[in-house]
Design a protein that fits this description.
Number of domains: 2
Strand order of the largest sheet: 1-2
Low-confidence stretches: none
Number of strands: 4
Radius of gyration: 22 Å
Shape: globular
Distance between the termini: 49 Å
Order of helices and strands: HHEEHHHEHHHHHHHE
Length: 371
């Protein structure tokens, strides 16, 4: 084996360890390094989470890999990205492959782009269905939160407000649709407890990462889809509209002063908001193009201030504005034009529209909320 293969293997093995640690912490609500349980016992408790998450990442990336091989385009094996920085870590920042040769047709861009999310979605759906089908009784939560005994089970949404710390995961439409078919006798965990159910949590992460990849911008998987569907001109405008939507929706959360606890928090949120907005617009228009990005900046700030005054109870999600900054500054919103720009086939167009519907079903408007 060459050194490059060993790097892939090393990163995978480190990611196995970090996801086992993260899985133990999410499943049990304990800190991995603070417990005296045998190491093997802790790893075994984290194994369902690690297995589900790594299975999703692997299938997603090999969807891209094998589709690129089909077209004779050289690609690397997946680079897994391990991550553990204490509690709240999910064990990995995902995995990526790199194409060593450019795509030459619009069809190639479309097929390689769509293969990963669709392959990964199959795993996500399987984890979700299995997770709901094997839910333990409601009393299971007492093993993780013995303090919930006073509530007799899961706290109500009002009671969660009295709990010092609670992480709430926004359920995407696919989760909500699935729950419609679950018997009333089954104890479906509320959004604040999903992370303690490893198969449901990994399913949630699978749908979350699928939605992020399918955002129709730049060279994300969703960007390849809209390039295949609408060509270079359509991609140009759709990417910019999506970035604008992410700015408008995310900025509302930053400037919703009704939810701010102090003047210091207002100043901090306003400062972060302004820095992100300027970072996005100056990248799109160029620093020196003041006559373009400065008026747009004032227009967006005015919109947000007026909107939050008219709709003070509306909650955006600041994370989407942050993600828009990452996309614009580091990933870019442009898409290369294939030498052969022949439109994709009718069947692929149908698949492209289905993929955009999947994006809507997988995305959550407020993925993470901490109270």
């Amino acid at each position: 084996m060459n050194s490059r293969i060993w790097l892939h293997i090393f990163l995978f093995l480190v990611t196995v360890v970090t996801t086992l640690i993260a899985g133990y912490e999410w499943t049990t609500g304990k800190i991995f390094f603070n417990e005296n349980e045998p190491l093997l016992s802790r790893f075994s408790q984290g194994a369902p989470y690690a297995f589900g998450f790594l299975l999703f990442l692997t299938v997603h990336e090999f969807g891209h890999y094998f589709m690129s091989k089909k077209y004779g385009i050289r690609a690397t094996l997946p680079y897994y990205i391990p991550m553990y920085v204490g509690s709240m870590s999910i064990g990995s920042m995902g995995a990526v492959i790199r194409l060593k040769e450019p795509c030459t047709t619009r069809t190639q861009f479309f097929d390689i782009g769509v293969a990963g999310p669709l392959a990964g979605l199959v795993i996500g759906l399987g984890l979700m269905i299995y997770g709901y089908a094997t839910l333990p009784p409601e009393s299971h939560i007492f093993l993780i939160h013995p303090e919930y005994v006073k509530y007799g089970g899961f706290p109500t949404q009002q009671e969660y407000h009295d709990i010092p710390y609670a992480l709430k995961l926004g359920k995407p439409l696919l989760f909500r649709i699935t729950e419609l078919f679950i018997s009333d006798t089954v104890a479906v965990p509320p959004p604040q407890e999903i992370m303690h159910y490893p198969y449901l949590f990994t399913a949630w992460l699978a749908l979350f990462f699928t939605a992020l990849n399918l955002i129709p911008v730049g060279q994300l998987d969703g960007g390849h889809v809209i390039y295949g569907l609408f060509g270079a001109k359509g991609h140009y405008w759709i990417s910019r509209v999506i970035v604008l939507i992410m700015i408008l929706y995310g900025g509302v959360d930053f400037l919703n002063f009704k939810n701010s606890a102090s003047i210091e928090e207002i100043i901090l949120n306003s400062g972060i908001y302004l820095l992100l907005l300027i970072a996005i617009l100056t990248k799109l228009y160029g620093w020196r193009n003041l006559q373009k990005w400065l008026p747009v900046t004032f227009a967006i700030i005015t919109f947000h201030l007026v909107f939050t005054l008219w709709f003070p109870s509306f909650r955006g999600y600041s994370g989407y504005m942050m993600f828009a900054t990452i996309i614009v500054r580091f990933l870019g919103i442009q898409h290369p034009v294939a030498p052969d720009d022949t439109p994709i086939s009718k069947n692929r167009k149908i698949l492209g529209w289905i993929t955009l519907i999947i994006f809507i079903l997988c995305i959550s408007l407020q993925p993470f909320q901490i109270s």
